[in-house]
Amino acid sequence: MKKLVLASFATLLLVIGSLLGAVVPGNAAPTPAITAGQILVKFRDNAAAAGALRSHGLTDGPDVGSTGAHLITVPAGKELQLVEALSRNPVVEYAEPDYVVTPASDDTYFPRQYALQNTGQSFTNTDGTVTVPAGRADADVDAVEAWTVTTGTGIKVAVLDSGVALDNPDITPKVVARVNYTTSRSNDDNYGHGTHVAGIVAATANNGIGVAGVCPGCSILAGKILSDTGAGSSSGLANGINWAVKNGAQVINMSLAVGASTTLETAVNNAWNAGVVMVAAAGNGGNTSMNYPGAYPNVIAVGATDNNDTKASFSTYGAWVDVAAPGVSVYSTFPNHKFVLAREYNRSQGYDIGSGTSMASPIVAAVAALARSTNPGGTPSDIRAKVESSTDAVGAIGTDWAHGRVNACRVVGATGC
Does the record bear Amino-acid biosynthesis in its keywords (predicted)? Predict the structure, then answer.
């Protein structure tokens, strides 16, 4: 029976030596996104509207409800320029961008979730012992923009890991089924890894606490494959895959690694053929060695980037790795009780940062879930192609990974990406 090894928390030391720099507030409001190709204009005299617009090569547009404003089509990229010009015209009462509407997240640690929305913020971990220096604005997966189209409601994502905590209010209510394929007596998460992974996928957004998942409308199938000491078996993982399929999973995340197994590959292929998108961590070896199940053809293998869109030093890489996602200092949920990783890596109960391709993989799984929600009839090949073709060209394409860093906004066809 082969033993599984974690693909992330073995390197959860977060490369602390590189995380130096001054702390600055991480909750400054980002510049609002605007809808491309249109603006809002209200005229003092509608009879003069045509002339005012004609001078800029524009034509009048439809009313916006009973507001008196008109929705005007403009050349993409010229929105702010035309707003400024029209605002100076005396027949115009006001002109303004047509701002992108996004969920107003009031989650406590959302400003530290650069993977979802990177404004170049610096932040600390929960107890202030680690400072993450400012990153590069927009080095993120554009999750907030994607939410204007879908939050993934109705999509089930199976997290095959160390279980999901029974006591974290941000992720526990999202779990719709549990199973335990380990020797541990409980299907609770006493290790910590699975709760962190699940929160990255589907933590409840805009509930005034904690964090938001990349797919906050998704629900979780919690398959406990790793025991309370972080070990498991290939047979347990295969059983977990089969259980997830039977319980309606549309996406399965596997933030773990194991040796090549014919039984496991068969389970992977059966799930794929049943319509389930399979996602796994590439590993944290900092080399090109293939890890399974990520290296199986019917699994999307995920490498890790940081908040500057740079390949993480620990990330396994190579042309066999399909895509990348943020995997350094990713904020998410932890158990609210004592758990093993809290002792080993000085993590706080409830919420804290974690690093590894184990953190990058659930981001990709969540992006695949968002893609699935906009294409419910799509095959796993369709969803995979959409995820891979909508990436941002980050890293050395073909050397670090085959495609790029995932972009949730593009995958669902939202504007303002």
Answer: no
117, two tokens: 């929305």
| Residues that are catalytic | 161, 193, 358
Residue 221 within a domain:
yes
Last residue of a domain, one of 66, 99, 132: 99
Average pLDDT of 331-349?
93
Q: Range of 223's domain?
A: 5-25+105-411
* Domains of the chain: total: 2
pLDDT of residue 1 exceeding 90: no
What is the pTM for the complete model shown?
A: 0.79
pLDDT, position 359: 97
Half-sphere exposure of 166 (CA within 13 A, CB side): 8
Closest CA to 363 of 335, 311, 323, 394: 323
Residues 296 and 332 in one domain: yes
| Strand pairing report for 330-333 and 351-354 | antiparallel
- Collapse the DSSP code of 73 into the 3-class scheme (helix H, G, I; strand E, B; otherwise coil) and give the result: strand
- Assess whether 52 and 137 both reside in one domain: no
- The string of DSSP codes covering 236-247 is HHHHHHHHHHHT
Beta bridge partners of 43: 92
